[in-house]
Amino acid sequence: MKLPGIKNVETITMVEIDAGVVSFCRQYLPNHNAGSYDDPRFTLVIDDGVNFVNQTHQTFDVIISDCTDPIGPGESLFTSAFYEGCKRCLNPGGIFVAQNGVCFLQQDEALDSHRKLSHYFSDVGFYQAAIPTYYGGIMTFAWGDGQRRSSSPVERNYSGAFSCRWP
């Protein structure tokens, strides 16, 4: 999160369950946060994410759930209760994005997330990104959108461009 270089963001609200994580990052990882904790547009809330989205009256254009894996303490951030709360907190046209594990190590996570997210978002999808510092190196991310968007230009250009012998 580097807010100083982003001019069109009005506010960012970060919800973190453990104040110690923030203190550690401020002290030992100052290059990673680049002063964003001190940006006047930044608000830090120390709370459980599920509790926050189910109690707040705030709404957001984008909600990014950058949490641990869907096991153990982070499991609650992969539940229907959390997804429902996130949907409620999104402005019209807003989008929800969540870390969804390493697909070849956690093969059922994307299916489970898709099933749950589809109850709250009319358009659900996944994408992958290279995250070399994470075990497995390729992370999967889920997104949910309250409205169907038209296909992207890239998708339109390449749909049907690839053919396979077997469907």
UniProtKB/TrEMBL annotation:
<feature type="domain" description="PABS">
    <location>
        <begin position="1"/>
        <end position="146"/>
    </location>
</feature>
<dbReference type="Pfam" id="PF01564">
    <property type="entry name" value="Spermine_synth"/>
</dbReference>
<keyword id="KW-0808">Transferase</keyword>
<comment type="similarity">
    <text>Belongs to the spermidine/spermine synthase family.</text>
</comment>
<dbReference type="GO" id="GO:0004766">
    <property type="term" value="F:spermidine synthase activity"/>
</dbReference>
<protein>
    <submittedName>
        <fullName>Spermidine synthase</fullName>
        <ecNumber>2.5.1.16</ecNumber>
    </submittedName>
</protein>
<dbReference type="InterPro" id="IPR001045">
    <property type="entry name" value="Spermi_synthase"/>
</dbReference>
<dbReference type="InterPro" id="IPR029063">
    <property type="entry name" value="SAM-dependent_MTases_sf"/>
</dbReference>
<keyword id="KW-0620">Polyamine biosynthesis</keyword>
<dbReference type="InterPro" id="IPR030374">
    <property type="entry name" value="PABS"/>
</dbReference>
<dbReference type="GO" id="GO:0005829">
    <property type="term" value="C:cytosol"/>
</dbReference>
<dbReference type="GO" id="GO:0008295">
    <property type="term" value="P:spermidine biosynthetic process"/>
</dbReference>
<keyword id="KW-0745">Spermidine biosynthesis</keyword>
<feature type="active site" description="Proton acceptor">
    <location>
        <position position="66"/>
    </location>
</feature>
